[in-house]
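Posting this for the archive.
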Amino acid sequence: MLDVAVCIKRVPETGARITLTPDEQEIDTSYLGFTISPHEECAVEEAVRIVEAHGGSSVVLTLGPAEAGAQLRDAMAIGIDRAVLLETEYNVVEADMQRPKVKDADFIGKEAHLRHRDEEPAAILSTLTVDDNTSPSNGKKRYMLGREPILTKDGKRIVDRKGRSAYVTSAGSGPSVGKHVLLAYLPPEHAEEGNELLVQYMGDRYPVTVAVKGSRSLFDPENTRVRS
């Protein structure tokens, strides 16, 4: 059995017109389409053929913003089994995924990890639930997909001490809790459970509540159902 991993890049579509932002410091991606690098798409197709011929599983990985998830979904549509989006915007302590102890042996990134453990996190991964999905504009139900800004209850931007604005990193339906669930990194003062905030989606603002501070599960956090 084989486990085949393919690394891909998110690149502008072939023939796309590249324009710069007004300050000419970045590429303006507002109207720029993206796709999988053609050479890596060939690698994705080959990984699918290998697994079909010899058994096993396949996984595709990419490093980039949340929008790169579109290219991961394209790879899965070709036949890849799993997809992993690697992000570097937040560290493992801010994600509340650090281990209780750090091993004595040296490893790449150890110095930075120890520094992150010693300092107060600038943001904390939080689980939010949408209190009302009804659009105030037209009364229709709206469900966030990701990348939407998180605001204070009075509509102000939330920015941590590193200058990072709070936004929805991922979103999905939570049928077991009866809510649409959002994940976002919030500054500690906003990441308190029960804190009421807003999420902006398609020009409207929807009420949300911080349900969980940290990486703890929203549903059955103690795994009592599994143990019973």
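The longest strand covers residues 204-213. The radius of gyration is 20 Å.
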